[in-house]
Amino acid sequence: MAANKSKLLRLGFVPLVDCAPLVMAKELGLFAKYDLNVELQRQPGWATIRDKIIYGDLEAAHALSVMPFAATLGLGSIRSDCVTGLVLNLHGNAITLSRELRQRGVRDARTLRAEIERCRGTKTFTFGVVFQWSSHNFLLRSWLASAAIDPDKDVHIVVVPPPAMFMNLKDGNLDGYCVGEPWNSLAVESGDGWCPAVSAQLAPGHAEKVLMVRRDFTETNASEHLHLIAALLEACAFCEKPGNRERVVDTLSRPNYVNASPALLRRSIVGPFQFGAERTEMVPGFHRFSGDEANEPSISKAQWILEHLLRLGAIQDRTAIRTLASGAVFSADLYQQARQLLNSTEHTHSDALELTPA
Predict the structure, then answer these.
(1) pLDDT band at residue 356, thresholds of 50, 70 and 90?
(2) Distance from C-alpha of 169 to C-alpha of 180, rounded to nearest angstrom
(3) Which of 85, 357, 355 is nearest to 227 (CA)?
(4) What is the pTM for the complete model shown?
(5) What are φ and ψ of residue 192, in 5° steps?
């Protein structure tokens, strides 16, 4: 089964560390290896990614794990059946709070609650998430709720594109945010923010980004889709290996990709991660790109997302959860087909890539 190399596949991404599999697949020649003609297109934020997938301006995209469900349900957009056959990574986010909150005595969610109570009636704190239907919103809400802070009554939660988070924090428009790297590390480096928690510790094993396509694309371009997943699986394995991480750092730092300094990117990709406030430590799995079926869009990964959508009222009952988690949106079948394709493909690179990281 050969892909149609003459057919252009427009593949969108948002400038974050976890776009690494797409970037490295391009830079390592993996798309060409699978006879694909792929054009990477950098996008400003997730609403743009969603709309361009729905309206056919992109064939596929680096997307929030919640987005295929949100599009299929018509949450915030027209209904559009979407699917993923690949989880690009687990984790990769952090919660950042402002320097001012630190100066006010905030150290964690519990002390944030105390400050909220102290300021009640005079100030309401505002926190940013990258998209309403995102793991970032789920993680921030769960972290707040762990200290009995009501995310809907005690604070304001607003949507801000990832690259705009830091400047809004610096300018005082936000008191904190939940975002992917390197936009947490940028706040820590400047001294304008610090991180009380990271997603690998808040929700171990949650799917963060996926390869999102419309369902009709999987039906009319089945070969190209499977070849695309296979190429990205190889890239995910490359990104996971510790020995390759410095190359990932240097590549992502380029202006056409994330456009951040290697030193800043290295904090989460290589480690140790600098939380700020004199806290620095290695965080195992901060970015998990491969290994132990991290890439499989499994029922359990889907259920984590759907349970949070249920709590937010986007899904009305558990019958809908059972239906949506059955493999229609998160397709383990597509993933397994791509795995078989990958395993049957002769590796032509001198440093052949493996699915299981060393």
Answers:
(1) very low
(2) 15
(3) 85
(4) 0.93
(5) -85, -10
**Please, which residues bridge with residue 180 across strands?**
93
Average pLDDT, the chain: 94
DSSP-derived secondary structure letter, 17: G
Of the candidate CATH numbers 3.90.1150.10, 2.60.40.10, 3.40.50.300, 3.40.190.10, the domain formed by 8-90+206-258+287-344 belongs to 3.40.190.10
Structure tokens at 239: 């990104």
**Alpha-carbon distance 282 to 270, whole Å?**
9
Domain boundaries defined on the chain: 8-90+206-258+287-344, 93-202
**pLDDT score recorded for residue 323:** 83
Q: How many CB atoms lie within 10 A of CB 264?
A: 21
Q: What pLDDT sits at residue 318?
A: 86
Homologous superfamily (CATH) of 93-202 is Periplasmic binding protein-like II (3.40.190.10)
Task: Tell me the C-alpha to C-alpha distance, in Å, between residue 176 and each of 38, 172, 317, 357.
Answer: 37, 9, 32, 35
Contact 337, 226 (CB under 8 A): yes
